[in-house]
Amino acid sequence: MERARFKDCLLLIAFAALLLLVVVHFNGAVGLLGNLMGVLHPVILAAIIAFVLNVPMNAIGNRLEKLFAGKSKRPSQDVIGAVSLLLTLLALVLVIVLVTTTAVPGLVQSVRSIYDLIQQKLPLVLAYLESLQLDTDLLESFFSQLNVEGLLQSITSNAGSVLSAVVGTASSTIGALTSFAIALVIALYIMLGKRTLGHQARALAYANLKRERADRLCYIARLIGTTYSKFLSGQCIEAVILGMMLFVSLGLAKVPYAGVLATLTAVMSFIPIVGAFLACLIGVLLVLMVSPIKALVCLAVFLCVQFVEGHFIYPKVVGNSVGLPPLWTLLAVLIGGNLLGILGMLFFIPLTAVVYTLLTENTQRKLNEKHIKVD
């Protein structure tokens, strides 16, 4: 017991000395931390890539294990992991190819038609604004300098020139590309050896910490992994379903730009709470330039699809997967958005869910120890 207390005192003194050193030499500590982050940047990026790709990889691996369950010649975990990783990478490449060959040309055509429509309706809009005695010089200057047609033609006319431009740009940023390539290789090794890495991490924790603390650390790690996996997979599935529902519904209602609006809504649905409403507002404004009646139809379709998605699909797909009440979700969105923008909005929800779960469990444990029941 005395030895444990002496060890804790030494650790406390060492931490206080380190904190004092950082405070005295703050600028040097910040510079050292910046250099360390620069060195570890590929490793951090690799961990993020592996963490995201691990979600579909685990899903595919679970399917493969169920497929071979009960069979005499069952492949090993390493083989299942390698096949899962290969299928994940193939699926990612397939999605990229489908998006670039099917969705992008359609979006380009829709953007071109929207731009032509704005050019046609712009004189009427400017005349109306001038009738309200508003200054329209800035708006006229903006649209006169906007050359969407030339931009779209430069993107779609010559793939070779685009490729050479990409190569030229890549040569000027060879350092960033090298870091990304290194991070991708490290991420592949992490995903292939995640079982071994997990075993080593648990062995290190139990060897150097008390059993209770090691158990707690492993539990928190599992909770973080499970929460983020559920959230990311649920958000992806929910975005695809919402986009498909809107595309079919808007198409049946003969609302213009159905593909653009469905794609925009699917992408913006990753922004919690406000994303889908912003997409609805943008869609109604675009359709309003074509026809006020169609704009009302677009609004009605959006509301109906959002109602069905919010009450029947989202609770099943995402629902309470992260176990976070609406108030905490709103706070997570506000804090994450102020700190890191859209990525903060996306990743602070599961992070807040983990903190909320730990606080709830800790509070309930203390109440049980005190034999207190709060109504």
What does this structure look like?
It is a single chain. The chain has 375 residues and is mainly alpha-helical. The protein is 87% helix and 0% strand. α2 crosses α3. It is built from 13 helices and no strands. The chain has helices at residues 2-24, 26-67, 77-131, 137-145, 148-156, 159-172, 174-192, 194-208, 211-252, 258-268, 275-288, 292-319, 326-369. The longest helix has 55 residues, at 77-131.
Characteristic key phrases:
375 residues, mainly alpha
N/C terminus separation = 40 Å
Nearest-integer average pLDDT: 75
The largest sheet is: none
Shape designation: globular
DSSP helical segment count: 13
Question: What's the short story on this structure?
Answer:
The protein is mainly α and 375 residues long. It has 13 helices and no strands. Helix content is 87%, strand content 0%.
